[in-house]
Structure formats: C-alpha cells, structure tokens
Amino acid sequence: MKNNRINQLLLLACTSQSLLGCAQETLIRPIEANFDFDVLNEVIYEVNDSFGDITHLSGNNIADGDYRIDGDLLSIEKNYLISLKPGTYYFDVFSPEREEKISLKVLDRHNENRLPNNGFETGDFFAWESSTAFKGETNLQVFSGQAVVVNNQIGASEEMYEGDGEYVYGLPADFDRSVWEEKMGRLTSRPFVLGGSGFVTFKLGGAKNADLTYLRFIDYQTREEIARFGNHLFDSTLNGLLPAQLHLYRADLSAHLGKTVMIEIVDLGGRAWDFICVDTIETYYANVPEEGTEAQNIMPISSKSYAPNQLVNGDFSQGLDNWTISPLDGWHKEDGTSQTWTVDGRVLKSNLGGDGSRGLIRSSFFRVDGSGVVSLSLGAAQGSRFDKDTVVSIKERNTNLEIARFANSRHDGIFMVDYYVDLSDFMNRIMYFEIYDNATGSYDTIFVEDIITYYAERPAFTYGESAININY
Question: What pLDDT does residue 177 have?
C-alpha cells in the first residue's frame, strides 16, 4: 500500500513538470524506426493516449511538414529523411503536458552518393522536379505522373520494357503517340556526391534524336555540364513500340569524383520517337560495373579560347565556316539522308535536301558586351508547329543552359523579319547559338540572316520587335 502511494506521487510529480529525469514508462513507441534509402519508407511511432496531443517536434532542423500526426500514429516523412546522412538521430516530442525523446536510424546505403527514387519506384516523381519547356503550358509537360507506369507492357502493346522493379518512366497505356511525341519538358534530380568508382549506369529507351532528347550530368556548384548521353542503341528498324525498350548503359565519370552533381532528363523533341523512357539511374558503384553498354558522351565540345563580342561569320559571308553541323543520328529522313544546312546569298537555310530536311547547327562562341542586345533576321519557319520545330536557341558556354529560345512568331512568308534579344542580364558571359529544324512540311524550313551580337549603344527597337522567349 505504501509503495503504491509513492508511485502515485512520482507520477504526479512527472506530469506537473518536465519529464526529464523522471523514471516513467515510454509513451511513444517505434513501429518502424529505421529509414532505408532503397525503400524510401516513413519512420512511424505509436503514441499512447496518455501522452496527450502532440504540439510539435524539435531537433535536427525538423519542421512542420516534415512529420504527420494521424490519430495515435506519428510519422516522419521520407522527404525529410532523405536529407539525413546515415546514423542515429534524436528528437524531442512535445504535448502541452509532456516531453519525450524519440530516436530513429538512417541506414547506410551510400545515401549521399545516390539518387532517391532513382527508378521511380514510389510510382511518381518523388525527389524529382519537373518543369515545362514550352510557354509554361503544363498541358504540354511530358514529365507527368501518368507516364510513371508499371514495368511490363509498353503502352498497350505486347512488348516489354525490361526495366527493373515495379515502375519505369515510360508511356501511358492509352497514350496517343502523335500527341505524346509533341510534348516537352525537363526533369531534374536532387544533388548527390559522385563517389565510389565514379561509374554510373542508367536505362534509356526511345529518344531517337539525341540532340533534343537526352540525359545530362551537371556540376551542382558551377552548373557546368560534365556529360551528356543519348540512346545511341535506338533501332528504328524494330516494329511496333519495341524501340521504347530499355537499354542498360554505363558511363565513366571518375574524372569528377567528389563533385556534387545533379541529373537533368531533357525532352525538347516533337517528332517520331523523340520521347524518352528511363529507369534505374544508379550513381554509386564501389567497383567498376561490368554490365551495360558504354555510353557515348555527346556533350557539345567547349572551347576555352577567347570569345569575341561579335559572332564570327554571323553574316554567313564565309558560308558555313565557324558553324558546326551536328553529326548525331536521329535527323535522318526515310531515305537515310540528312543533308540540311546550306548558305544561299548570305542566308542560312535548312532546305538543302528539301522541306523534309531536318537538323541542328551550332555557332562559335561570342561574349555578351556593349548594350547586351543581339539581333538577327528569320524567314520562312511558319509550319503548323513552327514554335516547336523551327527554333533558335541561345545557350551559355560550359553550362549549356538555355538562356532564350524563340521562333519566327511574326513570320512573313520567305521574307526576313528582324528580331532583338536583350541579354544585358548576362554581361561578359559566353554564349552560342543553336538553330534547329525538326519539321518536315511546306514552309517548315528555317532561314537565318545577319546575326549581330554587339551594339555599343542600345539599338532602337519596339516591344513588338523583341523575340518572345518560349521558355516562359
């Protein structure tokens, strides 16, 4: 009787002050207290009714939104847990009357060297960020949740993806091929530290045109592109949807060991098989992996030499000198030819092989200087999808970041129309032009003339003469 009275007094003392130092039964018990980076599970605790209503948690920068309270269950969300390094962590849980300490363990799966949800096994784009690449129109966003599909049949066909696990990024079962091919977008990963052997592997399908649809690795600190890969095993001779089948690639990035890196999956295509399928991007191997085809680095070559403020041969007076025609497959016509670019009377034209010619051409580098305004003239490029298919892009050297992308929005037949682009926010940075024709119809060819990249003083032009940046 006397001992029961002492226990009651101790309990009263503990409920009227901080629990620290009180010997009392634990009121918050773990159901699953280990976080597995490969599983991406939540950490879950059962809360006894005697603890009262939880007001908040503290410790390790945890904040509202990082945890969830559902009845008698306390769950710590995986979007917070993936930010923690392997180890044991302690948190304080508070109610109006009580405080209790809980712990969890983050298992070591080389977390900081790997991508969470690297094969889309959550069934969605958890830990990835999708963005539009055409006028901000979300209905044209190719990286949508409906394309994270079960890893079996490709679309409604009988062919198989041959991916890993339960899900892949692929084609919706009821997809309309012509509509899906036209969609565009970018999908960006979280940063990770390149470690181990420095080798990575990934699976790609589709993506016939590697100039427009590819996977690239970016230095997170400098934003410089360090490697770019396409699906060079794409086989257009296969029937049905078999070209969407996934191929395993391996790539040697050991020259960049220790760097914090991010991945961007890019789809800027709009024609046959320009869409991409992806699965299992594995970024940590202790030893060099033996499986997989060696990936081909197709990153544009970057010269470190001096760049003038006026683009060399911007008026095409020297033909195609100082311009580089992309050698990549994917632009070929049905007859196997890919002749596209020619200069006719100081006008660059993409019709060397007729209206059906397609291709991409890059300029040399220029430095943004003077007023920061550049100009050029465009002609033709007035097909039904001109602003997707016949486009001028201005990109930054090394990062290959697209600063502006525009089309002949004021087209006037074959007559040349002047456009101005204000790059004054990028003074002294090095840029280059990429011009592509991904169209096949009448008037779908693009004409480019008189590119001027240096004006000492800001030239006079109206708002209507400004190029419209399709990125926005």
Answer: 85
- 385 versus 314: which is more confidently predicted? 314
Domains of the chain and any CATH numbers: 2-106 (2.60.40), 111-294 (2.60.120.260), 324-465 (2.60.120)
Cα–Cα distance measured from residue 62 to residue 58, given in angstroms and rounded to the nearest whole number:
6
Q: DSSP for 338-356?
A: ----EESSSEEES-TT-TT
Q: Which of the listed ranges 45-49, 144-148, 234-238, 357-361 does the model predict with the highest average pLDDT? A: 45-49
Token pair in block for residue 386: 């001109």
CA distance 220 to 217: 9
Residues 6+ apart with CB under 8 A from 323: 313, 341, 348, 361, 362, 363, 364
| Residues in a beta bridge with 89 | 104
- Give the pLDDT confidence of 432-463 residue by residue, as tens digits: 999 999 998 878 899 999 999 999 999 999 99
Residues of the chain above pLDDT 90, percent: 76
* Measured CA distances, 316 to 269, 300, 343, 449 (Å): 27, 22, 7, 7
Within 10 Å of residue 352's Cβ, how many Cβ atoms? Answer: 16
If you compute the radius of gyration of the chain from its CA atoms, what whole number of angstroms results? 28
Q: Which residues contact 266 (CB under 8 A, 6 or more apart)?
A: 133, 186, 212, 213, 214, 215, 216
Cα(329)–Cα(80) distance, integer angstroms: 42
Between CA 338 and CA 83 the distance in angstroms is: 47
Beta bridge partners of 180: none
Please check whether residue 75 is in contact with residue 68, taking contact to mean a CB–CB distance below 8 angstroms: yes
Query: Are the C-beta atoms of 295 and 252 separated by less than 8 Å?
Result: no
464 backbone dihedrals φ, ψ, rounded to 5°: -65, -20
From the number of C-beta atoms within 10 Å of its C-beta (0-12, 13-18, 19+), residue 180 rates as: middle
- Contact indicator for 260, 221 with CB cutoff of 8 Å: yes
Nearest to 37 by CA among 89, 114, 91: 114
Residue 59 one-letter amino acid: G
Residues 143, 149, 151, 153: is their CA dihedral positive or negative?
negative
Backbone angles phi, psi at 15, to 5 degrees: -85, -10
The three-class DSSP label of residue 138 is: helix
217, amino acid identity: F
* Rounded CA separation 82/68 (Å): 16
Nearest residue to 212 via CA among 405, 356, 365? 405
Could you write out the DSSP letters of every residue in 11-70?
HHHHHTS--TT-----SEEEEE-EE-TTTTPPEEEEE-GGG----EEESTT--TTSEEEE
